[in-house]
Amino acid sequence: xxxxxxxxxxxxxxxxxxxxxxxxxxxxxxxxxxxxxxxxxxxxxxxxxxxxxxxxxxxxxxxxxxxxxxxxxxxxxxxxxxxxxxxxxxxxxxxxxxxxxxxxxxxxxxxxxxxxxxxxxxxxxxxxxxxxxxxxxxxxxxxxxxxxxxxxxxxxxxxxxxxxxxxxxxxxxxxxxxxxxxxxxxxxxxxxxxxxxxxxxxxxxxxxxxxxxxxxxxx
Length: 219
Ligand code: TMP
Prior knowledge:
The protein is an alpha/beta fold. It has one domain (12-215): P-loop containing nucleotide triphosphate hydrolases (Rossmann fold). 52% of the residues lie in helices and 12% in strands. It contains eight helices and five strands, in the order E-H-E-H-H-E-H-H-E-H-H-E-H. It has helices at 23-36, 51-61, 70-94, 105-115, 120-131, 146-154, 167-183, 197-211; strands at residues 12-16, 41-45, 98-102, 138-143, 188-192. It has a five-stranded parallel β-sheet with strand order 2-3-1-4-5, with helices on both faces. It is globular, with a radius of gyration of 17 Å. 40% of the residues are buried. Thymidine-5'-phosphate (TMP) is lined by residues 46-47, 61, 77, 102-103, 107-108, 111-112, 160, 162.
């Protein structure tokens, strides 16, 4: 009797950063780059990625800036994330696909933990309860000056609840992401996002190649 070998578990990559850093474009470029290398890739985003999480997204991105208090907001993000991880991300990884995700837990840490003052411990405790230390294999932090990012985001159309929060909030947000990256240098690579789309994509490919692809797959 022959046993069919289990597929090799895929890798989980998240892209993080403030508004207007170019994450969505870079997620698409990275997914197509990995597909060209023969990998099966699931491209997804947070909050969202499953019908339930997408319904929660509508609740959190629209309405007045103070529609939710920070605790409710963090709980909504983790309700969406739990659904996303259990129904889409985990099964995809177990089936051998790579997953590229536009935002993940570091966004809750940066937005609700740092800039909305819940604190690192509070978000870490919630994360441990809900996700049991489930982490991306690699996180790419697209770092950009807050003013430039907000101007870019503004050019996309009307601001959402978070874009309305003002420059001071977004300056603090950038520092929050950089602090998170400083604490976990093995998982998080900082990518300079004030470059052309092509140059950012190239830096991302190098980081992925160096940190995740095996030598025979490297660029
Ligand atoms: P997006 O603009 O990247 O689509 O994300 C939607 C907004 O939700 C964005 O302004 C950041 C915010 N957000 C949080 O505040 N906490 C989170 O955990 C996530 C995933 C997003």
